[in-house]
Design brief:
The protein is mainly β. Helices cover 8% and strands 49% of the residues. The chain contains one helix and ten strands, in the order αββββββββββ.
Length: 167
């Protein structure tokens, strides 16, 4: 999916959720460590299903305005921070897509599509998140699969990890 199409997708998702003023907004900047998570995986070639998730992974977030530059494990992603209109200082949500998402389900090579959502919640200096995403690599020549994943994580560092925008 070209950058303009990716931005259109995020814009459409952003319109569906109200934005709030950013005066005392939650700041999700930092590095998060997964505390629990699960993926339901399906292999379209052999029909096998598995459930797993490596919870020894991290997720990092750099904030630029309302743009979020996210790296989950080693996958760069893009999101938009949408603040809860009633509690913008403690709650926010972000739709997200990976930077190399394609609109073609019949691709070859070692590509993956990630689309999902992150929910941020803070209490004092503690920021936690819950995430859900869909991954498809049905025609990936090396490891075909379709996954639905959910996870929880807590921020372990509030330092900006320096993630960069999608190319």
């Amino acid at each position: 999916m070209k950058t303009s199409a990716r931005l259109l997708l995020v814009a459409i998702l952003s319109i569906a959720l109200p934005a709030a003023a950013s005066a005392a907004a939650i700041d999700p900047t930092g590095t998060y460590t997964l505390s629990k998570g699960t993926c339901k995986n399906y292999n379209p070639i052999d029909g096998n299903t598995t459930s797993d998730m490596n919870t020894a992974q991290t997720l990092s977030v750099t904030v630029s305005g309302s743009d979020l530059y996210i790296v989950f494990a080693t996958v760069p992603m893009y999101g938009k921070l949408i603040l809860d209109p009633n509690t913008p200082d403690s709650k926010g949500v972000s739709p997200l897509v990976n930077c190399t998402v394609t609109n073609n389900l019949d691709f070859a090579g070692n590509d993956y599509n990630y689309m999902g959502r992150l929910d941020f919640k803070s209490s004092g200096t503690t920021v936690k998140l819950k995430g859900r995403f869909y991954t498809e690599a049905a025609n990936n020549a090396f490891n075909p699969f379709v996954s639905f994943c959910s996870f929880s994580a807590e921020r372990t560092s509030s330092a900006d990890p320096g993630n960069t925008p999608c190319p």
